[in-house]
Sequence to fold (417 residues):
Amino acid sequence: MWPRVPLRRLFQVVNGGTPSADADNWGGGVAWATPVDLGRHHGKAIAETARTLTPRGLLTGSAAVPAGSLVVSTRAPIGYVAQAVVDLAFNQGCRGLVPEERVDPRYYRYAFVSLIDSLQSLGQGSTFVELSSEALAAVLIPSPPPEQQRAIANFLDTEIVRIDTLVAKKRRLAVQADVRWRSQVVKELQLAGRSSTGPTPWIEDPLPDRWELRPLKRLITRSWGGDWGLDPGGAAWELPCVRAADFDFANLVAQVGVRRSFDAITLASRVLQPGDFVVEKSGGGEGVPVGRVVAWRGEGAAVPTNFAGGMRPSGDVDATFALLAFRVAYEIGLPWRSIKQTTGLQNLDLGHYLTHQLPVPPLEDQRAIARLLMRELERVRSLQSRMEQQIALLQEHRQALITAAVTGELEVPGVAA
Fold:
């Protein structure tokens, strides 16, 4: 174990700042970090930031530290750390740490990763919790000899890359499994897209025997608009109100909603029963159209929010197949054809959207396809769950390895006991 010394004996602490909104201060060549930027690069190097300053902005409202320095978030939240590989400015939610000559900043970057819980416990303030410059400078931190700092940093550089590579691989496997399932859904519904002409160029041509083209509206018996209702206690009936934020689109369901109050007239025309569909009608974003559809699987009745709508699956189609058909429609981009864009908000023309056609097989084939795809979805979710568990274990191991190495609890090659 090595002696612990106050941080001020190893680093000069530099406070950051934010220039005024004057356009002459922004958009230059000076990287300017915030706690959000540090969160994206926690424990790693940082060279680019979401926003940049001009030299004038740096001079009039911020501060910078040279490449090789550390920058630590000391507000909202406390404890993120990154090592600058360029001269780096930062806002008042961060502190810069300029190392003394005998310090290997890589070692202390790892040391700060191990200290994140301790740093957060030192935060003070009523309006917002902050770690002051004085409190940061007084933090006790391990101080091994410089050659041992280098050996530990070299060891951790290698090991952390190995762990992070494994984590990235497992994340890719989880994503790829979902992509394969989505592709399988499109394939099973005969939407390979070989045809390139006509009103439905996304549909494979010719269709299999006994399949027919049906507009989406023939997969449902009726559709209706939503209602935001009143605050709890404002009307006689209190039910979940289902928003797009409540969608579990990966699993095609919604099971919860925020509690709202509704009168009897609203409930007579807008209530969802378990198994009904909820369609997102307003919202979306760049590259993400509205039009997602999920099944309401909560306990009892609910109401779609006013930015959504309800749809009841038709009795002459398999409900799960119909839900998958709406997922296919979304995957191949049909909602884009029925969106009325307003400023900052997409509005789906549901009536127009429901006129789009998809191939539909006989009922027995619908059921077989639905069983196949839902079994595959269950397999995909099981695999993703295993990947998430393995990633969590790797991340725990990563943190424990860093802590043990920087405190001397782990025997590191090249480091004297």
About this structure: The longest strand covers residues 26-33. Residues 193-197 have pLDDT under 50 and may be disordered. The chain has ten helices and 25 strands. The CA atoms of residues 253 and 295 lie 5 Å apart.
